[in-house]
Fold these 3 entries.
Entry 1:
Amino acid sequence: MTARQWLRRRRWAAVGGALALVGGLLTWTATAAGDPVAVERQERFLTGAGGVRLDTSYYLAGGGDRPAVILAHGFGGTKDSEREQAERLARAGYAVLTYSARGFGASGGRIGLNAADGEVADVRRLVDWLAARPEVRKDGAGDPVVGMAGGSYGGAVSLLAAAQDRRVDAIVPSITYWDLEQALFPQGVFKKLWAGIFFSRGLTDPRDPRCGRFTPEVCVAFQRSAVAGRADPATRALLRGRSPAAYGPGIAVPTLVVQGQTDSLFPLDQGDAIARAVAANGAPVAVDWAAGGHDGGGDEAGRIHERTVAWFDAHLKGGGGGAGGAGGGGPAFRVTRTGGAGTESGEVTLRGATAARYPGLGGTSRTTVALDGGERTLVNPAGGTPPGLTGLPGLGGTPGLSALAGRFDLGAAWQAPGGSVAFTSAPLKAPLHVTGAAAVDLTVRAEGRAVLFAKLYDVAPDGRGTMPRQLAAPVSVAGGATSRVRLPAVDHRFDAGHRVRVVLSSTDLGFASPAEPAVYRVRAGALTLPSVPELAVTDGATVPWWTWALPGVAVLVAAALWVTRGRAGAAGGGVRAAGSGDVGDEVPLRVSGLTKRYAGGGDAYAVRELSFTVERGQVLGLLGPNGAGKTTTLRMLMGLVRPDAGELRIFGRAVRPGAPVLSRLGSFVEGPGFLPHLTGRQNLDLYWRATGRPAADAHREQALEIAALGTALDRPVRTYSQGMRQRLAIAQAMLGLPDLLVLDEPTNGLDPGQIREMRDVLTRYAATGRTVIVSSHLLAEVEQCCTHLVVMDRGRLVASGPVGEITGDDDHLLVATPHPVDAALAAKVAGLPGVGTARAVDEGLLVRLTAMSAAELVVELVRMEVPVERIGPYRRLEDAFLTLIGGGER
């Protein structure tokens, strides 16, 4: 809630002395915060290896000499992809050079997959240029103090540059590969879907539609692999020769390895190989398992940036990074965990667990569990069709598809009948937190070699299974042999009473499978599960409560600190009915008999006997016509209006003005309000200071990414458009990553692209275990992002429950595509077995299923190269809404 909103709600207060307080506070804020340090950006073309022109940007802030940092972008990006991080690093005291790699953006040349005489030699020329800059600190003549960071493709070139240019002093490679051959052909199995996505991003040169911007040798290698479904010796040699693994002994500089846990392209084992190689060379190394990856997941860009700065401070500036097991710059090992269990504050947030040394994928402790015995039989279908569906490689971050698995219960994956077998443990007697790669002995009877896909499941007492991180590990074993098979590395807690399951399937959508039909008979031995007991939760483990006093005018002043007491762990917490006592539970919101009638309103009630409950992980849509009582309900929820009867409880605690539990609530109601002469950044800083909570608890970088205001963030708010103010207000509501987020008409003033981004932000936010309540008149947006609905009319509850129950789902699915679908494609889809009808509509395809599941439809659409943006039940929420409120007749 903004200061201006508090002003409107407290006009009755005396303002004389308060105005003096406001003036003093604003003067202090301007002096203390000041304007952000100005960053100068210089644009120029530099000459790379072989005369190739490289488009670069150079960032400086302030004066004096300083170390330099080169930022390399990911595959398909350009120098502009790194602009925000470059500006932040410049403000942190570095000379920062970004560039578009050859073959990308405005740079010349062709893509050579980080060839030594191409992309890596280009970095050497960039280091030469930095060595001539007077403001760049030097180790000697022609030798600048320089670090390098990059993600994915850019992370690999930072490793290769460190190996081949001794002037590179420290690196931070992120979500990248060590051995590109093993990344694209693990166990010799072709990762065809990812390879196709990877290659297609370079096919944008109309002068060469066959090879696009790739060098001939790279183009031919991919085409041979795509046709054969495997890598020939020449392709293997090319990929190995352009991988950091080929230059491993030369990488002897401080290295911070950031690897994503949600990544089917470059999984954790690639980061593990980097860490082991650098450590063997005697250089400091730290490993950070972040929440996200190439398949989406949690966004930790702000935290990773801060850790990158600390790493470079420690190893380029010679200090400032803090002590750590990696020679400064933080802990030797950190893993991000999600959920609220185990924290004293009860905050459901991304948390860090750290250890003094990197344990590797085998952990420091191992637990062996027996799997149910017996030989199981599965088949490989002819042509590998239909393939199993573990996840959607490369589409995890695509708008609308990131929530597809949850919407269609694809968390348990899908496999054609007879195409998978499962081996399950007995219920665990105690909780077990697995950190690393589990391993199991498999004996396979088959003719020749068998290709299988191994997956790890967490099976709850009710029988429902979930797959941590949606990852599958390909397994290629000789028939008749017993092999030790390593499953995908994860960090996951198995609760007591849960079972561990290993599933083996014969096909997977992301990989090339043998075309010949085959029968495999499989027997599994005991399962070994690694753990790291010494991991200790550090950041995010304790979040104090703060109470707010309410001054007479515009500003919130922090009045008192509420120290929370430890509460019962999530495993033992149940849902409690609201009572007279102020006892907490884990239900985010309970509304019981809520009633409010305003003075002068006669017999009309704004809200009357309203009751509903909102659970964790839900995105609840609060719907109703004007005058239904939605805003009054939200104002009572925030403690701004006292109900006449009934009560609201947030996490079991009664809502009252200034109640400590309101610190777990983030809200945006009745439009944005900011101090117009301050910048967007200064408004956010002022708001957070007013809460009295520590700056580290704000998670400001995540909120700023949600705002997506770019350089406008440092302009006065009076220059903002309505949409920009709206986005800033939503980012303010998300400061501190509250457990319960309440938004009133969040998409007002946003354009269609921003509305889609907002929808995905809310879906991802709830997926972390938090709860979102959205009040909106845009029914189409509500039905796409909300899981549950509460419909009000004339102050009363009309309906509540899951969206599907209220709208009445049928067997129609809407497949959204970026471009209109022609009749021929619709007819082709309609001809699929199990599809009743398919017709083109404005949004894409409307498909009625008969004997086909939603998962099978996704498989077929991907096979037919239909560019799916989003898929979901075809709901007529508008019709249901009008029916519930009487067709609009009031």
Entry 2:
Amino acid sequence: MLMTESSIAKAKMLNPINKPQHVPRPRLMNVLTDAVQGKMTGICAPPGYGKTTLIAEWIAATDKPCCTLTLDSIDNDESRFWRYMAHCSARALNPPAHEAVNALIQSMSSVSIFTFIDALLNELYQIEEETILILDDFHLIYNENLHEQLMYFIDYLPEKLHLIIASRSALPFSTLKWRLKAEAIELEAEKLMFTTEEALRFFENSIDPPPSIEQTEQLLVRTEGWITGLQLAMLSLQAGHSFSQLLPSFTGDHRHVADYLFHEVLTKLQENTRSFLMQTSILSRMDATLCNELLGREDSAAMLNTIKQLNLFLLPLDEQNHSYRYHKLFGEYMSAELKRENLPRWLELHQKAVNCLSARGQLPEAIEHAAAAGNFPQLEQMLEQQVYISLQEGELALLLRWFDYFPEAYTVSPELAIIHVFILLLKDQTVKAETIVQQVEAALPSIQPQERNREIQSGLLFVRSNLVFKSGEFEKWVAFSDFFLDRILPKNALFYNFNYNQSELFVRRTSMGMKGVLSSHTEQIAKLFTGVLQSHGWEHSLINLYVKQSLAEGYYEWNRLSDSVEILNETAAAITERKVPGLLVPHLLCKALRHAATSDYTLAHHYAEEAFVHVRELADANWQNQIRAFRLRLLLREGRISEAKLEGELLPVGSKDKPVFNREYVFLSYIRLLGKQRKQKDALQLLAHMKPLAQREGMLSSIMEIAMLQALLEHQQGHTELSFRSLQEALAVGESFQYIRSFVDEGEAMHDLLSLYLTRENQLGSSVDNDKSQYVKKLLAAFPVLHQDAPAKNPKALPEPLNQSELELLRQLRRGASNRQIAQALTLSEGTVKVYLSRLYNKLQVTSRTQALLIAQEMKLLQQ
């Protein structure tokens, strides 16, 4: 289950409501209006300085769309934070782009946060009118990774998007680089203080008779323009205190004054109102129904209305006045007072909140109250219900926070402990994971009944496997699996039916597929693991099918085509029946690749079309575009350039776009089309942007593919040295994992480049080590016999011998010189070089540099 618009807390994304009796502050409104021309505005001041009220006033006055996200401490989870950011900012987009953001959110768990931010920014560049994105209560975000990520987000913010950040404390990152460019301003407490004029207007609207100018100025001096202090003073005056009685109470810091005055305010209230305020203060958000359920009363709507009329720090969250929250300083004070005065009641109310919120399906909020109430058995029960949802949404930090709520003396169930280990492994916290695994293993002998014991063993097998992959101790896993081989009966749907692929065209591009890693060890573990599952009837589980599909794709890469076909045939019925796009699409396209490898393009296109029909029924644009990109590659391999161009026009990418990782496969397909259209410069610029993204993700297959394309494109332009440099990068990755098909599927151009590279390196004195030389020879041997556009059969003797100028041209070509460099070396014009090259090609009976050098090598022309 993914976090969609219907499942998120929409109250977090409501714009603050402007109060009817607010004091207009045109001087600050002008500052905010001017600031919109830059990237961001920071509004940073202690509680009670009117930050949210100012934002509400500005939203009511501006004609620009505004999207507000009110933050909570649980938003320190990076996935949760950026998922809410995406949902919130997407509201400024047109429907198609909004849908694209929703698709992006679904792929979030398969990419890094920075890659997700790149992709989100790419979509936000489609915002058509100036839009304001507001983050309120940012002081609750203490995760330093989020601070760094938000800085990155601001750096690349689209021109039509402006960010406002409201925080009780100073921003946890420097804004100097933006302020120096006049792209950011910060409104601090000093600027937010009420002026005398604003304070007079405030009291005129609230008290009859209002304080004099002199008295108002005295209050401003004592409160330092602190708006909440003035509001508390007003409440005291309304309660009957004289100005002379009130003024001495303003001593000490703001918190001291607040504590004193809140106490004064609360003691003057009717007991019914005071009790209602105190008891509902434990809620972060409330409505009349929730208050009635919490307190066992029926008049909460009237009470909330009374509190609102008394201006007692109650903030409406919607225009219909259905939802509210207390000013956080006020709410914190009241909750602390209740806890101090009546701890049993405070605990009881938190427990009631657990029951009310869990009944509403608001488990994250209920979990927080269960932790406060100290009800750890119920916390455990709710965590078991919520963990799968939060896992699917990638909220790993939040899940770990909830696990940390359990005291050391409390032992969760072995099943939940194994899930805890699973999350720790996803966060690379292997030491703590190992400790918990050992605790569960120690408890195994005492766990009954036997069926439950075996289920726990199945979970242990899974997390132990992951621990081994993290540590690389493959022999340890083999010994472990032998021990459990005949003892497990896996039934844990969370692990064995977890959907590991939400967006990738091939499983080997996911974490499940180890992002391109191939080795005899991974093959051995995969076969042993699937063997254990199948021996116990779990051949149709998602985990088994995913590992099998990854194996099939790996065998294809290794050019073990019959092994790949065997697995594809073995799993076809189960994968077709499950209809999971992340399995079915890779399965069908792997079949298509298999047929394309033998030039059976009719069947290759058939399987690609079958995959497209399946995802078209899902109305999923991401899958559709990726399959279009796959079809484009097939057409290019066939040489059907005009049809490939038509397919490329349907893709949502262009040569001027900024590549993002979640569209990497689409961009790499489009780059191949640009190369065929002789637009090498545009293609190379896109690749230059894509390489750091692939490196950041640790996507080995992508790193190699990008280097291969750079090599081919540079070679097209005659930049042989640059081409060889990129080819060496590709070979370094490919040799480590014995990749074959990635090279072979690039066709004759790659064959010629590899041949030229091997020849040149051998002539230069074996700068290629023997292992690499053998690898290149292995690659060349895997290419099919090439017929089209092949060099003419080498004559035993040239019809006309080469002159010294033509031999020098060949030497320049062997050095990788461009036409311009050749012209400079031989003191010729580029036009003359082109004429001489044409004559040289005619003599050699070839049509390209590569073919010319191959003929020269075979005829040993440069050794004469």
Entry 3:
Amino acid sequence: MRGVRVHNLRGIDVQIPIGKLTVLTGVSGAGKSSLAFDALYAEAQRRYLQSQSARTRQSLERFDKPDAETISALPPAIAVRAERSPLGKRATVGTLSELSQQLALLFATCGDVFCPQCQTSIQAHSTNDVVHALASWPSGTLVSVAFPFLPRGEKAKEAHAAELREQGFVRVQVGADIVRLGEQPLPQWKNGARAWVIVDRLETGKTPQERCAEAVELAFARGDGRIALLTTDKEALFERRWICPSCAYLYPTPTPALFRPEHANGTAHWSKDALCVRLAGATIADLSSLPSTRLSEFLADKADTAARSEQRLLGSGTLIELMRARLELLARLRLGYLSLDRPANSLSAGEMRRLRLASVLAAGLNQALYILEEPTRGLHVSEIPGMIDELLRLRDRGATLVVIEQASQVIQAADQVIELGPGAGEEGGQVTFVGQVSNLSALAGSGGRLIPAPLGGRGGGDEPAGGRVENLPSETKPWRSAQHWLRLSGANTHNLENLDVDFPLGVLCVVSGVSGAGKSSLLEHTLFPALCRAKGKKNEYNGELSDLSGVEHVGDVVLVDHIPPPRSARGNPASFLKIFDDIRNLFAQTAEAQTRNFDPGHFSFHQPGGRCETCQGQGTLAVDMQFLADVAMTCPDCQGARFRKEILAVTYRHLSIAEVLNLTAREAFRFFRTQPAMQRRLKPLLDVGLDYLRLGQPLETLSTGEGQRLKLAAHLASSRKPRCLYILLEPTAGLHAKDVQTLLACFDRLLESGHSLIVEEHHLDVIRAADYVIDLDPGIGESRGVGQARANKNVRPTVIHGTPEEIMRHADSITGKCLRALQSGMNAPGTIT
């Protein structure tokens, strides 16, 4: 890649080795996503579309060519971003992993059907089933293949017999009598007696199999799905329809569509017909509710044996092997505790990301380019090695991996590391380091710090190698004491089992634990909804709990989740922070604007009046290149300013509206020094380390970490109530260790203002800096994993709580083990010393 100038990238040159693992790192906003997704992946998509025919390209979306001189030797690419998009209420673990579709196919082809009325086994037969039955009979047996003579009444019989004769059928068998049509009169038979039209007479072991299959298929077609194999002393009936032999109940043909779950009250209920089908004695509801590890064991044992013994599907063994391979992949990604019927909107961001990653990895495109954004996000530090093994396994099969990561374990495992920096925004966009971690000793003058030393936190201890960094919490600062407590009792949401937890208020409380321990279920789906109900706020979740006390000590509650701000070319930080209206009002109040009768609407590029109508306020024009990608060019009328010349002529403190929107947050904070309300809304941007963002910068250009902090800043700017409780879900996601320092300083300012913080987090530096830690432990050793804990009904999760020092002293805490290793100066998970 040469001369890449996408967003803030400054014409950089980068070489990425094929068939290797390359990690992109650097501070948030340095340009990692721009390089990986907006340049590398965008060009891969564009080239793929260009390879299609002109007719096909007409109906496909066109992609612009990234601003780069050359991007050569580019393999087909697959990308997995870290963003969490809103999902439909019917999405489940099974649908997202495609395992539900495969399980439905397995039930449709290999399931045993039982009559819902009398519980009798129902079996429909195919042509192959009948031919297989014929082959099992003694060799030399004379067999007639026949279908029912259906008409009732004498006149109808005669007419039907004449019709059959014209069609080439010459024999009808009633009881033991055989009548030749056209030569003998039809015999009389009572209602209920069976008469058969003979299609062909075969001799087992001698008649070719093709002739047997042809006769059976014709009999099925003429007999409305019912046929008979007749011998001198035997009558074997076969039914293509799913009809009960006892009560004649007609069951619908099992197809994969039959096993689509019905949804009510946010949960899956299968139809009555779907539950009539069993695989080795289990219904699809039974199997969908199993943890995926136990489902894999079931498929390996009972289901595989049943499918092969019945020989109902030639490829059933292959289907089961594919399902087990995907289930084993989920287990390796620490998702073995999830059941297929688990609603997708109940998953944590880390679980959702790994689930999407599993779907991509299961495709098995070995020579492709995989572009992954923070695959370890949402993983406990003890679980990161398992993800690294999966990445290396994919690399060893011939894939090329480009991974955006901050976890030092992944950086250490990389074949090549590319650091972008030295700062964020316009201060970034440069390559500050390329090579392996082993070469870091030779690195001099790097503006960014590739793997900063861990924070000291408040627990004391020796200063780690690499020196201190400014603006850290004091190592000697004591832990804060809780002012009040929230007491949550009897939490039973998702995998929580009658859990009681006390949350301290007025302090930094961190909730930690391995993936699947129940952190998101506890905070996002139980505690937050309960607080919303107590405060009269709407919330889509309704977690199960017995009681929540202490809510009178909370003035308001705010949840900062993982869903990014809306990505659009027109959205920008000014509008997201709700200061764009104030800016437009200021310009409308100027003497020049009032002289020209300009109102606030004239200073918006969203609506006609003041915007440039040539580009409709976009600043650029898309040139239609027919079957090639559109080419973006700067608007010739406004030169990218988005507004009419008359609007740009109006100034506030010597700046036009376009120039104000081009200010960084820090510049704007100084510029609006006479506007305290606007400064109050801008200050959180500075506090969370986004002082470099420009007010009019499109939201679609922000990285994941920037988007998360922008949401936090918006909440901080809009909150006016005292004693607010902020619940943050992995706020360090996408952040470099230098950014984490700024975030911790922001936390301190919030606490000093009388607010409370409950943070779901895996970052060891944040855990060490906490005043109180609630560590959810699955209840068993690290080596066995949480999946087995969920499968074992006798094991219940436990809550380990206290200061970070107390967590470190707890022998059973996995988090404590990692903290002890870090404290002792070892090469702990997530740390380089």
